Amino acid sequence: MITVDKVSVGDVLPDLSYDVTSTTVVLGALAARDWRPMHHDYHFAVERQGVLDIFLNSPNQGAWRVYPSSRESPPGCHTASRGRSS
Fold first, then answer.
1. What number does CATH give the domain 18-66?
2. Where are the alpha helices (DSSP H) in 1-86?
3. Sequence-distant (≥ 6) Cβ neighbours of residue 53 within 8 angstroms
């Protein structure tokens, strides 16, 4: 485990990864009080919205997105270095 006392300015930190599961997506929507079904109802998302799966809401996409200064994601990219978002 890396702690602050072992890090110096200019050190390159290892990537942080986290699997974003359906539970993560649903809990994120609930935390934001976003009751819209595309964030928790697979059939609604796929059949009515035409997407591949349930997906993170906007506040949670922003929370999961990480922009290291040396590897900034391009605008419109929905893949976070901490996991998958759609």
1. 3.10.129.10
2. 22-31, 42-43, 58-64
3. 22, 42, 45, 46, 86
**Nearest Cα to Cα of residue 36 among 19, 20, 18, 60:** 60
Domain locations in the chain? 18-66
Residue with tokens 């976070």: 80
Categorize the per-residue pLDDT at 79 as very low, low, confident or very high, splitting at 50, 70 and 90: very low
Q: What is the pLDDT of residues 24-52, one digit of tens each?
A: 889 889 988 989 999 889 999 999 999 99
Query: Which band of pLDDT confidence, cut at 50, 70 and 90, is reported for residue 18?
Result: confident
Mean pLDDT of 60-71: 65
**Dihedral sign from CA coordinates of 34, 39, 40, 45:** positive
> Phi/psi class of residue 33: alpha, beta or left (left: φ > 0; alpha: ψ in -120 to 50)?
left
